[in-house]
Amino acid sequence: MAHVAAWKKKLVNNLVDEMLSNPVVAIVDVEGIAGQQIQGMRAKLRGEVYLKMAKNKLMLLAVEEAAKQKPGLEGLMDSIHGQCAIIATDKDPFKLFKQLNATMSAAPAKAGHAAPHDIVVPKGPTPFGPGPIIGELQKIGLPAAIEAGKIVVKKDTTLVKEGEPISRPVAAMLPKLGILPMVVGMNLRSAYEDGVVYSRSTLDVPEDYYSNMFASAIYNARALAIEIAWPTDQTIVALITKAYREAMALSIEAAIPTRDSIGALLARAEAQMLSVASAAGYQDDRISAKMASAPVSVAAAPEDTDEKGDENKEEISEQDAEEDTAAAMFSLFG
User: Fold this and answer.
1) Under a CB-based contact definition with an 8 Å cutoff, are residues 107 and 32 in contact?
2) Residue 253: Cβ within 10 Å count
3) How far apart are CA 136 and CA 173, in angstroms?
4) 6-104+185-205: CATH class
5) Beta strands in 54-108, from DSSP E residues, in sequence order
6) Contact 52, 18 (CB under 8 A)
7) Residue 60: enclosing H or E segment and its boundaries?
8) Do residues 56 and 81 touch, judged by C-beta distance below 8 A?
9) Pairing mode of beta strands 157-160, 119-121
10) Model confidence pLDDT, tens digit, residues 177-233
11) Which residues partner with 153 through β-bridges?
């Protein structure tokens, strides 16, 4: 610091003070932003963040000095290159990223800039009437013609492919066509908080990403705990319900009568009895009455069937009985 000019030393000290007095420090990319736009963005952030542009060498010196008292801050040094600025704030890095992202806006391309995507001029009318400008449009590769008193582009035309440099004539014409291909704003490169440096990729997540991730983890953990019968405050009710349901199913399958299963067992026995009565052609007023109110598969059973038909019919009746049993079981849970 002894060989640094006084004004530079003062600037570095101010940067150090701000980085030490705020929990969050970030490096933002300001390349391509006009001075007037930066002033407007600074005004929107005033009172919430400290924003300072300086030469990269001075910012590196300030970060290095502040890192002596704030270990981990030196992780920001890799982000200091090109046109950038330092931000110091008490705002959460994720909220800061979102706020800075809101400063992004469309801007005209400059000659020599790489196209961020394919720059396409769509087919259709332009803002221009007949005149010499039609020659300029054709010169940059647009199939322009005059129709109904307007200059029109005859087909969708890609002027510049993604990654290619934008020529001066194209850069000059695009704003006239209402095409602003560039997006400029304060692009957060990295942010420091509590000894951790967060990259842009870490911060660039949907607002509800982590809440949804935790909710999914909780759901899956609970499902696993229930599957392996691991009792906790969150699973005990589901485990008891599952055990009761399985015990009921076993009780009915093994025909073991209990206070809870007796109704389902009697319902299944009655269904099986009606099936046998129908197959045997048994005649009885009470049986006939029950068969009349029973499902069609039992009440309408044919009298004259072969042995295979009887077996099929009994299988259908047993299926109906099992459905009745399931209904009875589910009714136990209200």
Assistant:
1) yes
2) 11
3) 8
4) alpha beta
5) 84-89, 105-107
6) yes
7) helix 56-66
8) yes
9) antiparallel
10) 999 888 878 889 999 999 999 999 888 887 778 888 999 999 999 999 999 999 999
11) 124, 144
Does the pTM surpass 0.70? The reply is no
Burial class (CB in 10 A: 0-12, 13-18, 19+), 287: middle
Q: Taking the C-alpha atoms of 235, 210, 193 and 31 in order, what is their torsion angle to the nearest 10 degrees? A: 170
Cα–Cα distance for residue pair 228/226, rounded to 1 Å: 6
What's the one-letter identity of residue 210? Y
Q: What share of the chain is helix, strand, coil (3-state, %, to 5)?
A: 50, 15, 35
Length of the chain: 334
Are 6-104+185-205 and 119-181 in the same CATH fold?
A: no
DSSP, residue by residue, 276-326: HHHHHT---HHHHHHHHHS-HHHHT--SS--HHHHHHHHHHHHHHHHHHHH
Matching residue, tokens 């980085």: 19
Residue with tokens 């979102």: 98
**Gyration radius of the chain over CA positions:** 39
Domain residue limits, the chain:
6-104+185-205, 119-181, 213-331
Q: How many CB atoms sit inside 10 A of residue 255's CB?
A: 10
85 vs 96: CA distance, rounded Å: 14
In whole angstroms, give the CA distance from residue 299 to residue 156: 72
3-state SS assignment for residue 177:
helix
The CA distance from 198 to 157, in Å, is 41
Tokens of 218: 């909780």
Quick one: DSSP state of residue 4? S
Check if CATH label 3.30.70.20 holds for domain 119-181. Answer: no
7-64 per-position pLDDT tens digit = 999 999 999 999 999 999 999 998 877 777 777 777 778 888 999 999 999 999 999 9
- Only one residue has tokens 């953990």, namely 221
CA dihedral 256, 258, 263, 269 (to 10 degrees): 20
